[in-house]
Write a structure and sequence with these properties.
The structure is a single chain. Helix 7 packs parallel to helix 9 and helix 13 runs parallel beside helix 15. The protein has 494 residues and is α/β, with parallel strands linked by helices. The two termini are 18 Å apart. The N terminus is likely disordered. The chain has an 8-stranded parallel β-barrel, surrounded by 6 helices. It is built from 20 helices and 13 strands. It has a single domain, classed as Glycosidases (TIM Barrel, Alpha-Beta Barrel). The structure holds 4-nitrophenyl beta-D-glucopyranoside. 4-nitrophenyl beta-D-glucopyranoside binds next to loops.
């Protein structure tokens, strides 16, 4: 099999011209390849060279505190809205909770060893607010701080850069009892907590993200009610919740900068990934309008420090109440923008007042185990491109991307998740196009390192590139993990 020979890393990473490749190929052919036509067979390997990422591209994986840690009553941790919600009958698949999850609170060293075996350069993790301030405010809990310092030290010892998310949805229950994100005070409390954590970690963590997916935790938690705290508020109240959340982000940016001017600050936003249905000028222009408008209450207000006219007009009496000072805080400049991208939202031009329309996915649209997880690899090209064009963003990361497969270990215990490989290969191909065109995406974090607690879907949906047997906590790298390892080793789409 000539391909085995050419999958060797040393060979592929050589900057090699087509002509010298042909020469080399010819000599190798003499040594031992049985069949012709040789040039044709090796052509795909040659193209790998064109699919490389720049040197220093940061390959990472992502997890979140409540989804992996477990140990919910340990070392003084307070309760979060997810403890409450997941224990309420009928709220999660099978009644699953994050009480144990991946037990990463105890097994973090094993997890870091998995990261190292894959060759990861960076790890995105989140801090559980109720481990630091069990009541949300007041006296800090030293044991909680100790845990994250231990985790970060273990990462650094293994040459892995920590990227710290300060809020991945586990709001202290004590604050929810006082109104949660319906209360403006929560934004202030969050900024205090963010500044405090930064002061404890900034000697070893250089990249912070304020919040993860503001759209998800506000709309799912306070709108549809399928996530904690499970409320279904009216439109006006929900708009106010969203305003308090982006305000919390902005105030946190300021608090972080005040305590640690040297660290880099961003967020992880699940931007509505507006994608031109056809790569043609009118569609691209429509997708750009859509990118700004569909993200009006999230990335747009954070990038521009203002809500769009159309957003406010459409909400009418339900528009959020805000001050100019709040908008200024919300628009605090960032060092980077993190994009969580799983799906594409296809756009076409329209003569309506917005100038575009979203195209609903036909029923036949391919998706993964989660019906929402439709396959739209071009989003990993178009979102960074449009975000850069709209707001002149200087640095971006893909802070989440991944898929849930129907992972079933075979008789040898292997998980051969070829569909996840297909997903990753295609998305990475489009990301590589973006990077090759000079769009400043500096790194990519695969969701997720491990199968973990998938919120209301419990343990039913698996997003890991590592399989977790939740009975024994045994971790086994899936075939997609092997694939990702190869991507990282060769710094290329393979
Ligand atoms: C993200 N949707 O959540 C979160 O940041 C992760 O915690 C989560 O595990 C991961 O994606 C996979 O779901 C999302 O319904 C949850 O469109 C739901 C949606 C999108 C993202």
């Amino acid at each position: 099999m000539p391909f085995t020979l050419f999958s060797k890393r040393s060979f592929l990473t050589l900057p090699i011209s087509r002509r010298s490749f042909a020469r080399l190929a010819a000599s190798v052919a003499v040594i031992g390849t049985p069949t012709a036509p040789f040039a044709e067979q090796t052509a795909p390997a040659l193209r790998v060279d064109d699919r490389r990422f720049p040197e220093g591209f940061l390959w990472g994986s992502a997890t979140a505190s409540y989804q992996v840690e477990g140990a919910v009553t340990e070392d003084g941790r307070g309760f979060s809205i997810w403890d409450t919600f997941s224990h309420r009958p009928g709220k999660t698949y099978n009644g699953d909770t994050g009480d144990v999850a991946d037990d990463s609170y105890h097994r973090y060293k094993e997890d870091v060893a998995v990261m190292r075996a894959i060759g990861l350069k960076a790890c995105r993790f989140s801090v559980a607010w109720p481990r630091i301030f069990p009541q949300g405010t007041g006296a800090p809990n030293q044991k909680g701080i100790d845990y994250y310092q231990r985790l970060v030290d273990e990462l650094l010892r293994n040459g892995i850069q920590p990227f710290c998310t300060l809020y991945h949805w586990d709001l202290p229950q004590a604050l929810e009892d006082k109104g949660g994100w319906q209360s403006r005070d929560t934004a202030e409390h969050f900024s205090h907590y963010a500044g405090f954590v930064t002061s404890k970690l900034s000697d070893r963590v250089k990249n912070f993200m304020t919040m993860n997916e503001i759209r998800s935790f506000t709309e799912l938690g306070y709108g549809s009610g399928i996530h904690a705290p499970g409320l279904q508020l009216a439109a006006g109240q929900l708009a106010q919740v969203k305003h308090h959340a982006v305000l919390g982000h902005g105030l946190a940016v300021q608090a972080i900068r005040a305590v640690a001017p040297g660290v880099r600050v961003g967020l992880a936003d699940n931007v509505e990934a507006c994608t031109p249905a056809i790569e043609a000028p009118s569609y691209i222009a429509a997708a750009q309008l859509a990118m700004r408008e569909e993200n009006a209450s999230y990335l747009t207000v954070m990038m521009e420090g203002r809500y769009t006219d159309l957003y406010l007009k459409r909400l009418g009496k339900d528009a959020p109440r805000f001050t100019a000072a709040e908008l200024k805080a919300i628009g605090s400049p960032l060092d980077f923008v993190g994009l969580n991208i799983y799906t594409a939202t296809y756009i076409h031009p329209s003569s309506n007042e917005a100038g575009y329309e979203r195209i609903p996915n036909p029923n036949s649209f391919p998706h993964f185990m989660s019906p929402w997880l439709t396959v739209g690899p071009e989003a990993l090209y178009w979102s960074p491109r449009l975000v850069q064009q709209l707001w002149n963003v200087k640095e971006m990361y893909i802070t989440e991307n991944g898929a849930d497969s129907d992972d079933k270990p075979n008789h040898e215990g292997q998980v051969l998740d070829t569909d996840r490989i297909m997903y990753l290969r295609n998305y990475l191909g489009h990301l590589q196009r973006a990077v090759a065109e000079g769009i400043p995406v500096r790194g990519y974090f695969c969701w997720s390192l491990l199968d973990n607690y998938e919120w209301a879907d419990g343990y039913e949906k698996r997003f890991g590139i590592t399989y977790v047997d939740f009975k024994t906590q045994k971790r086994t790298l899936k075939l997609s993990g092997e694939f990702y390892k190869e991507v990282i080793a060769r710094n290329a789409v393979v």
